[in-house]
Amino acid sequence: MKSITIKGSERESVGKVATKAVRNAGAVPCVLYGGGQPVHFSAEEKEFKSLVYTPNAHTVVIDLGGKTYDAVLQDIQVHPVSDKILHIDFFQLKDDKEITMEVPVKVVGTSPGVLLGGVLRLNQRRLKVKALPKDLPDFIEADITPMEMGNKMYVTSLISDKYKLMHPENTVVAQVRISRAAMKAAQEAAKAAKAPVKGKKK
């Protein structure tokens, strides 16, 4: 999985007053968990743009004055009106410890059902996976080439040896639905097939 670097500085004071001062200075208060004692730090809001405002999944290298930590974003608090980032929690990665995170689903291939007028519906745009840090995928590839009209793709068809998918086996990832136009055409064709041929003697 691709990684981005966030440069920040450790925070000595972590109370409400200090946190407010950090935000007033245009920075985001953060906490890194998973490595024993939590590490409190802050970084400028622009540092998080390529992490937060993207559909892609990333791991993070947190650089605090030369001291670096590998991590993943665990939780983010955003202001309900302004969308300003208020706080971010990170979780430290360990090479020998599995981590759970969501990664995007990437659709590939061409569905015969779609070519015939069906509508592709992506039920799951992101899937939760559990893996060692080195095996975390950038995305999960969903090949819709075998999908005919009315077919569903279940999470079981996306199983990999490198990671576990943390979803029930009956989870539908994508489906090719019959469009109204295709359904109407099928109904008209059925009526035409049943209708008696004019001029034919009984």
Automatic annotation (TrEMBL):
One cellular-component annotation, GO: cytosolic large ribosomal subunit
GO molecular function: 5S rRNA binding; structural constituent of ribosome
Chain ranges of the Large ribosomal subunit protein bL25 L25 domain: 6-90
This protein's UniProt keywords: Ribonucleoprotein, Ribosomal protein, RNA-binding, rRNA-binding
Pfam families: Ribosomal_L25p (PF01386), Ribosomal_TL5_C (PF14693)
Domain annotation Large ribosomal subunit protein bL25 beta: ranges: 98-178
GO biological process terms on file: translation
Keyword Cell membrane assigned: no
Oligomeric form and interacting partners: Part of the 50S ribosomal subunit; part of the 5S rRNA/L5/L18/L25 subcomplex. Contacts the 5S rRNA. Binds to the 5S rRNA independently of L5 and L18.
PANTHER family, alphabetized: RIBOSOMAL PROTEIN L25/GLN-TRNA SYNTHETASE, ANTI-CODON-BINDING DOMAIN-CONTAINING PROTEIN, RIBOSOMAL PROTEIN L25_GLN-TRNA SYNTHETASE, ANTI-CODON-BINDING DOMAIN-CONTAINING PROTEIN
Task of the protein: This is one of the proteins that binds to the 5S RNA in the ribosome where it forms part of the central protuberance.
Protein family according to the UniProt entry: Belongs to the bacterial ribosomal protein bL25 family. CTC subfamily.
Protein name: Large ribosomal subunit protein bL25
The species this protein was found in: Flavobacterium noncentrifugens
Gene that this sequence comes from: rplY
